[in-house]
Design brief:
Bound molecules: adenosine-5'-diphosphate, magnesium ion
Number of strands: 13
Strand content: 5-15%
Radius of gyration: 23 Å
Helix content: 25-40%
Structural class: alpha+beta
Oligomer: single chain
Number of domains: 2
């Protein structure tokens, strides 16, 4: 059954999103939350408001774009209190208590009472029932979410979950929601990412990214507004790719395919340094490979801890199977991807040369290496196998990686200087 929502922000029609989706299409993520093969589409077209009894006015969940950020001309036509336009709860969809005008004013009068961070279930329900709790964006026009028997389809991670959708223009996007309140440094980081010139983002392999929320920057720093707080979300173009480990599993034995991926990864990391960008948590779950033979490309998601000039330090130190064992928050900066970049490059080339290595070391959350290897450089079966690789670049790269592990901290030289033969 196709449900409908209304998106009143028709002003977004001028949005030029199609320009560079570049092969971003149907999301092929891995951690599908609990839904079977059965999927339905939940469509959010623009159209007459729910109050006017438009399509889907009864029995179907709909979405009323919030009026707050509309241009003045449209704002006049929008309902003053979006909660008043809510229709009775559609059957089978849990409804949350509507936020009444008095509840809203009480909240601004008593900012001390901190509301708990919304659960995943609540955010997914709100997407249908209380769209005014999210900031609008033209890319959301006519958003159609895939739906399974228990609700909207989403993909989970430890810090966030993502909800893919297709919009009116046929573009593939996703909303990324946080499992807990993002800190001010993260908010600022996303604001910086949003400013990244489009061509730079493409060269770096970053999906187009927008921060949707009601956080405000002022002299006291970034803070959440108390009057019309919305659940923040990151809006991103969706990469139609496979997680790096899935890609390797599928292409194990395809020497050329893995060598191309290794070369593309290296190129991206060289671009990182040229543009003073660093991801901070390079690992299989945050790297997507769009596999297309010689046109294969590498994309990076989960930008919570990235470095850009001007951002504040992130205290995350990345996934321990990919990072220097002595990495600490003080190593945050433009060179922080060098170690994990070299590790990934060596792993890809090593598996290209010897697919058996993958089968011997296949486990979730690693690409050949895991923390015990990094803590015992040169002294595990993996290191010994790498030292015997038929690819001299793997032998050289592994030796360099082992030396880096012996150092008191991660390398502070450009990635190009870490690659063997450069
Ligand atoms: N732009 C994107 N395109 C496709 N998949 C994405 C995108 N951003 C995130 N994902 C996927 O969504 C899931 C959770 O996202 P992630 O940002 O990595 O959250 P976490 O911080 O919890 O690891 C992962 O499977 C990830 O690969
Ligand atoms: Mg992640």
């Amino acid at each position: 059954m196709a449900g409908q929502i209304l998106v009143a922000a028709a002003s977004g029609a001028a949005f030029v999103a199609g320009a560079a989706l570049l092969g971003f299409a149907v999301f092929a993520g891995t951690s599908l939350i609990g839904f079977g093969l059965y999927r339905r589409n939940r469509r959010y077209p623009r159209g007459p408001s729910r109050a006017s009894g438009g399509p889907g006015a009864r029995g179907t969940p709909r979405y009323q774009a919030p009026p707050q950020r509309q241009p003045p001309g449209l704002a006049a036509a929008a309902p003053k209190d979006p909660t008043r336009t809510l229709s009775p709860s559609p059957s089978g969809v849990r409804r949350d208590r509507p936020m009444t005008a008095s509840a809203s004013s009480q909240r601004s009068a008593a900012p001390a009472a901190k509301t708990p961070w919304p659960t995943r279930r609540k955010i997914l329900d709100d997407l249908i029932d209380h769209p005014d709790r999210f900031a609008p964006h033209p890319a959301l026009d006519g958003a159609t979410f895939e739906e399974g028997p228990t609700g909207i389809q989403c993909f989970g991670g430890s810090n966030a979950f993502t909800v893919p959708f297709t919009n009116d223009a046929g573009e593939s996007w996703l909303l990324r929601f946080f499992n807990s309140e993002p800190n001010p440094a993260q908010v600022k980081r996303y604001r910086h990412l949003e400013m990244l010139p489009r061509d730079v983002g493409l060269a770096l392999g970053l999906p187009r990214t927008y921060w949707l929320d009601d956080y405000r920057s002022d002299a006291r720093g970034v803070r959440r507004t108390t009057d019309s707080a919305r659940t923040p979300a990151v809006l991103m173009t969706r990469v139609d790719g496979q997680h790096m480990d899935r890609f390797v599993a599928k292409h194990c034995g395809d020497r050329q395919g893995l060598l191309v991926a290794a070369a593309r990864l290296r190129d991206r990391l060289l671009h990182f340094e040229a543009h003073q960008f660093a991801h901070g948590d390079l690992q299989d779950g945050n790297i997507l490979v769009v596999s297309d033979g010689p046109g294969t490309s590498i994309w990076f998601v989960d930008l919570d801890d990235c470095y850009l000039p001007g951002v504040e330090t992130s205290h995350s130190v990345g996934h321990s199977n990919y990072q220097h064992p002595k990495r600490t928050p003080k190593h945050f900066g433009p060179l922080m991807d060098g170690f994990s970049g070299l590790l990934l490059w060596v792993a890809l080339r090593a598996i290209a040369a010897d697919p058996q290595l993958w089968y011997d070391n296949d486990d979730d959350g690693r690409l050949l290496f895991e923390l015990p290897d990094l803590q015992r450089p040169g002294d595990t079966d993996l290191w010994r196998a790498l030292a015997d690789s038929s690819d001299p670049e793997v032998r050289g790269g592994a030796e360099r990686l082992a030396n880096l592990c012996r150092a008191p901290g991660p390398p502070s030289v450009p990635f190009a200087d870490l690659l063997p033969g450069w």
